[in-house]
Amino acid sequence: MSNLTLAQYLQQKNGNLTPELAQVIETIANSCKKIDHAIQKGALADLLGSAGNENVQGETQKKLDVLSNDFLIDALKVHPHVGGLASEELDEFTPGQQDGKYLVLFDPLDGSSNIDINMCVGTIFSILPAKNSITQTQDFMQAGTEQVAAGYVLYGPSTMMALTCGEGVAFFTFDPESQTFILTSDAIQLDADTQEFAINASNQRHWEQPVKRYIDELLAGKTSVRGKDFNMRWVACMVADIHRILCRSGIFMYPYDLKDPSKAGRLRLMYEANPMSFLIEQAGGSATTGRVRIMDIQPNDLHQRVPVIIGSKNEVDLVTSYH
Ligand code: MN
Ligand code: MN
User: What residues bind substrate, as annotated (predicted)?
Assistant: First the structure.
């Protein structure tokens, strides 16, 4: 593996990359370095705990949710190539520059309930083309198939970035000494089959029949129609759960459930499901709601939620066939 820096990698020809898109991705990476630095400081910088308010999703905002959001918004809203931005933490989109060619959507701090226990968190981003020079909410209402790039930064034992520009998936590891992201693997590929699954089983009684059936079969393992045993893993941070799947395959589910029938699912289409689906599909996996491919959904709301079944292709296909 070469020791390409992220900046060098972004100069190469890859998928939808343009010099302008490369600059946007570099700006996101730089904001994530600041987030990483704040997370490393943790309690020493008085950054743990609640910020004392709720976000648009009705969730308690952590101090680091607010700080991470501010880092990204401040850097991107003045970026010459960003026409507008939307954040999981903000009700309305934020206008960018008139001629900005791209829209950036992000979950500034995914899994933020992990903050107070010093566990993994991440930042997820999705980049869409800006189709008009004057941005309105309608301009963001593009299906996931329109994404030109997507990725995440995982603040784990090492800080890593996963990135797709529409031609495969690459991993970068943050080198704290040089303060740069260095390419450490590319051509990430999932196996079509897996023996590992991730689901929040405490919601089991609320699941629909197809998901109940699928999980029952996995739990019965060798004694079921599956004829093999499965393992379960759950980090409660989508970035970490998806990272594990990109590293060694698996299936992740946050399915539709009947706990609150007014909610179509728990995860956000624009900030979580679409960018992760783009990455997973680019690595040879699949992503559906159980009924339709996630990236084909025509959004109607910035904060829309969807059921998510994502990962190794044969498992996702099987669950989908049960619906
Ligand atoms: Mn999240
Ligand atoms: Mn979040």
Answer: 110-113, 200
